[in-house]
Specification:
globular; mainly alpha; 484 residues
Length: 484
């Protein structure tokens, strides 16, 4: 490949460090908070986050993605995007502030309004940070992103845990989320040479928005699609049930997201840089998919197998009711790289309208199924099953459907190429699952299941000469030499 492999490995290593650093810290913080707080507090937070994430998507308007995708982006482009995003964020925050009492009344939670008005400020900082982050991602400077997100995760985590110890309940979750966003902005402001100038180029704004608005709508649909079950459950069920449901989905997504997002963050700028060479792009897509699936699929299935001991040990037994939801989310995450790699390729090729159309189909079709299940059953487990089925079918039959036409690597070829990895992952997880019949205590059960799974998976990969094993080894070497 013409792309510099060593450079891509270094970028992945720092992207993994950023995800692994900040996300693992956030995960630890959430685990501590879950031990200190009741599920009801996380139910309230789930509603707050869906509302603020929709506002975020509108405020950012896909401008960061547009800056990365456009080879001709300059400092004037970044300044224009900065002011446009900040202006949209200000309008959005005003709307959130004014609508907070109505949202509070809809969910019959009087305290929701003040939480929403305070946490809504996060939209302003996230809009600014999206431009800062795109500046660093475009230059593949994931080292700086790692530093900013890790510092922010540590400081905000300590503050959130401190407030939880002092009995502030939901406020500890609100403060932790808000402080993290503010600190990322502040640290990146110090790090980055570029600062927004007092310029606004109308022509560039139209160009950026012309690409970005489709990603913006897609982002809104994506948040709505992923959060629709929380919104319905929040209305139909208790805050405790919503807390169990949201956390059952959140923890496995956060854990697997460390690896999958690390790869996806590197793929988009890499695909954008080689998009004019179809053969080279196709090779990069194939390599990204095979390596990503080799790492993400087994990790997802292993976490599904050890769900019960993990939750009992880390979160305490008051959270055991979320185990089935946790497991279903893990299994669906095994297919995640098929979605991420293809969607990043579509966007890199400039076809943001396709990305929008795919998301609309998923929201209208899959979202309707999830909404109907949640609304009719008022049951968090039935809703989780619907979410699981819709998620996998959406990846296989919607996200991957245009692959052959867009970049030449067909959905069937992708499934065929990743089938050995899925087969080995299933065999390994089945063997690890049998350990539970030994009726061991949670800690030895967890350790033995991890050992059995890892031994069979790595042994099988070595025996059947999976090429992804050597590539993963190269990544580990790059990880070990990251300071060079």
């Amino acid at each position: 490949m013409a792309v510099k492999t060593s450079s891509n490995i270094k970028s992945f290593v720092w992207s993994f460090m950023e995800q692994g650093g900040s996300k693992v810290i956030q995960l630890i913080v959430q685990i501590v908070l879950a031990r200190l707080l009741a599920p009801e507090a996380f139910g309230v937070l789930a509603i707050l986050l869906v509302v603020t994430q929709i506002s975020d998507s509108i405020a950012q308007s896909g401008l960061g993605m547009a800056l990365i995708q456009n080879r001709d982006s300059d400092e004037r482009s970044y300044s224009t995007a900065w002011w446009l995003s900040l202006g949209l964020a200000t309008v959005l925050y005003a709307m959130v502030y004014l609508s907070a009492p109505a949202i509070s009344a809809f969910y019959s939670m009087p305290e929701l309004a003040i939480y929403l008005r305070v946490l809504g400020v996060i939209v302003l900082f996230n809009s600014a940070n999206s431009i800062q982050r795109s500046y660093l991602e475009r230059s593949m400077d994931f080292k700086s992103i790692f530093a900013a997100t890790t510092v922010a995760a540590l400081a905000s985590g300590v503050s959130g845990i401190g407030l939880a110890f002092l009995g502030f309940g939901v406020w500890s979750l609100v403060a932790q989320s808000l402080m993290q966003s503010i600190l990322i902005c502040v640290v990146m402001w110090v790090q980055i040479r570029w600062k927004p100038a007092f310029v606004f180029d109308t022509g560039q704004a139209k160009s950026l928005f012309g690409y970005g608005w489709k990603i913006c709508i897609t982002g809104i649909l994506n948040v709505f699609y992923s959060g629709i079950s929380e919104l319905i459950i929040g209305r139909a069920c208790s805050a405790r049930e919503l807390g169990l449901y949201s956390q059952g989905r959140k923890y496995p997504t956060a854990a697997i997201g460390v690896m999958s997002n690390s790869i996806a963050n590197v793929l988009f700028p890499m695909f954008s840089a080689i998009k004019s060479d179809k053969k080279e792009l196709q090779s990069a897509i194939k390599r990204g998919l095979s390596l990503g699936t080799f790492l993400v699929a087994p990790m997802s299935l292993l976490v599904a197998v050890v769900a019960e001991p993990i939750i009992a040990i880390l979160l305490t037994e008051k959270w055991l009711s979320c185990v089935p939801i946790f497991q279903l989310t893990c299994i669906s995450n095994a297919f995640l790289m098929m979605q991420l790699v293809n969607l990043r390729a579509y966007m890199a090729l400039g076809d943001s309208s396709l990305y929008l159309r795919l998301q609309m189909v998923k929201v209208l079709g899959g979202g309707a199924v999830i909404w109907a299940t949640a609304a009719l059953t008022h049951d968090i487990y039935a809703t989780a099953i619907a979410n699981f089925a819709v998620g996998i079918l959406s990846i296989l039959f919607i996200d991957m459907a245009p692959a052959q036409r867009i970049h030449g690597y067909s959905a069937l070829s992708q499934v065929r190429d990743t089938l050995p990895v899925f087969a080995l992952s299933i065999v390994s997880s089945t063997a690890a699952l049998l350990v539970q019949f030994l009726k061991l205590a949670y800690v030895p059960q967890l350790l033995l299941q991890c050992i059995v799974f890892t031994a069979i998976y790595l042994g099988g990969a070595k025996l059947f000469k999976f090429k992804e094993l050597s590539e993963a080894t190269s990544l580990m070497r790059g990880f070990a030499s990251r300071k060079r």
